Amino acid sequence: MSLRTNLFCLPSLATLAVISSSLSANAVTLEIQASGEPTANKAAELQQFPSPTAEEIGDRTMIPVPGTVATSSIMLTEDTEQPNQVAQADVSLARPTRGGSSYIGVGGNVGLSGGNSSLADGNFTVISKIGFTRSLSLRPSGILGDNTTFLIPVTYDFSFQSLGDAFTESLPIAPYVGVGVALKTGDNSETAVLVTGGVDIPLNNRFTATAAVNAGFFDQTDVGLLVGVGYNFSGF
Q: Given CB 3.0 to 4.6 Å as the disulfide criterion, which of 31, 55, 120, 224 pairs with 114?
């Protein structure tokens, strides 16, 4: 009876021994993992399959430095607004042009051809230049005489650079050309198209000399040479 009982106990003891060894191995494994040291299998797995996240952070990820990255929405709208901007001319009454200052002065007219107006005679003349953009001027003048004639041309002003060096100052000479109207007064008053061309020569900061050829297309074309000196002034 005792032998039979012992035979029945042997399988149970063997089973307990296997379970005990398994639990012991698991406990050792848990203890190793808890201590922070990876197992050999885990180390091999990490070496064979590196984490893509760790590699990206180590080699490729760039951390922006404050103040070096544009985050404002102004950067997005700046380029789109530029094409819509319209360039505007700088208009100012009696401003200097690239040909020189505005002025008012006196001079004389010498008739070259014709005879319907004082433009074709030798007469005393009041002259002026009133700039309103960098390149455009109004040059009203009056030629006194029996048939006083008023000339009102709009001119395009030029400026010349020295021929030797393009970076030097402009030459002290400023030609201009223009068109407008010529108004003849008197018993036979008449209006005609006026064509003019001339040159301004700045003398100093206060005075400018000028010479121009004017042609008024009346019934008979009148042509005169105007020469004068003007006193420079600035805008109103």
A: 120
SS3 letters for the chain?
A: CHHHHHHHHHHHHHHHHHHHHHHHHHHHHHHHHHCCCCCHHHHHHHHHCCCHHHHHHHHCCCCCCCCCCCCCCHHHHHHHHHHHCCCCCCCCCCCCECCECEEEEEEEEEEEECCCCHHHCCEEEEEEEEECCCCEEECCEEECCCCCEEEEEEEEECCCECCCCCCCCECCCEEEEEEEEEEECCCCCEEEEEEEEEEEEECCCCEEEEEEEEEEECCCEEEEEEEEEEEEECCC
| In contact, 111 and 222? CB cutoff 8 Å | yes
Residue-wise pLDDT for 4-63, tens only, equals 555 455 555 555 555 555 555 454 454 545 455 544 455 444 444 444 444 444 455 555
**Contact of 132 with 105, CB cutoff 8 Å:** no
Residues of the chain with CATH 2.40.160: 102-233
Query: pTM for the complete prediction?
Result: 0.58
pLDDT of residue 173: 85
